[in-house]
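Q: I have 398 residues here and want to know how they pack in 3D. Can you give me a structure?
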Amino acid sequence: MTETKARADEGLPLAHHPGAEVKSAMAGFLNAFSGFQDEVKQTLQQQEERLTMLDRKTMTYARAPLSAHAELEVPHKKAFGAYLRTGDDDGLRGLQLEGKAMSSAVNADGGYLLDPQTADSIRSMLVSTSSLRSIANVVQIDATSFDVLIDRSEVGSGWATEVAATAETATPTIERISIKLSELSAMPKASQRLLDDSAFDVEGWLAGKIATRFIRAEAAAFINGDGVDKPKGILLPAKVANASWAWGSLGYIPTGAASDFAATNPVDCLISLVYALSADYRANASFVMNSKTAGAVRKIKDTEGRFMWSDGLAVQAPATLMGYPVLIAEDMPDIAANTYPIAFGDFKSGYTIAERPDLRILRDPFSAKPNVLFYASKRVGGDVTDFAAIKLLKIATA
C-alpha cells in the first residue's frame, strides 16, 4: 500500500507536491528577513556616518565653554543690528515677548539695551583707558543709588586682669556715604546711506563713538565733578593742611614754593606726600597727575642726582614715581599757584564708582534728516568714600 501511494505521489506535478508550499513559504520568509537585515544594516551605517560627520565638525569648530552663552545672544545681536540700520524693532520686541535670553531688550524709559557684544566692547574701552576708573573701586548695581558704610574708627580694647572688672571700650563710628547715579549720554549720528551699506560695521562704529564720549565725560567728572547731575570728583571735598586733617576733608602737603616746586630739594614735598598716607593705604597707592605735571616731575632728582621717575619696562606698563605707579589723568590741574596737581592714595579704598550694567540706545531718524541720531545713555555715579585714603600736593608755600 505504501508503494502504491509513493507511486501515486510521483505522478503529481511539482507545484502540487505536499512539501512544496512549505518550502515556498520558508523561502519567502528568508528572503524578506534578509531584506530586513539589509535595511537595518543600511540604516545603522547611515547613522554611523552622520555621527562621524558630527564628530568631525565638533573637532573642527570646537568652541570655548562660554560659547553657549554667546549663541543665546546671537538673535539679539541680529535684531539689534536691524534696528540700528533700518529702525525695524520687531525682532527686539519679539525677543521680549518670547522670553528669550535678552528678555530686558525694551527699556521702560524708551530705547533698547545694547547687544552684549557692543556693551562689553564699550565697557572694556572705558576700563582700559587712562581714567580714574582703572584704579578706583567699581561696583555694578540695579538701584538708583549706592550706599557705602565706612567704619572710620577702631573697636576699643584693653588688658584685663584676673580679678578686676573689665571696663567698657569705645564704640566704633559708622559713616554712611550715598552715591547717587546720574545719567550720562552721547548722541552720535550717521547718514542713512552709510547705514544702508552692508560693508559698514555699524555696531563697531557706534561702540567706538559712544565709548569716546563716555570716556571724556567720565574722566572729567571723576576728577572735578561737582555732584550736580554728575559724579562727585576727588577734588571736590574741602582741603586742609595734613596736620589739621579731619574726616570729611582731604589733607594736602605744600610744595614750599608759591607757583612751582621748591628750587632746592624739590623731591622733599613728594616724600612728605607719600608718608602722609598711612602704611595700610600706601601698599596699594598710586599717583595721579596730568601730562604737563608728569613732564615736570620726571625731571626731579634726589640729592644724589638720581631721577625719581622710572618708565615702565614692559609694554603698556605704568611709569612709577618713587616705586608707586603713575596714572596720567589729563583732567588734573596744571602746576600753578594754589592748585592741586598731584593726588596720591589708595583709590580702590578712597573712591567708589557705582553704575548700572545696562546701556540703552534710542534711534532718532527725524531730528537731523538726512542723518540718523543714536541717543545712548547709561547711569553712573562716583564719590570719595574714604577721606583718609587720598592725599593731595598743593602748589603753595604752606
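Q: Anything worth noting?
A: Residues 4-9, 57-73, 95-109 have pLDDT under 50 and may be disordered. The longest strand covers residues 371-384.
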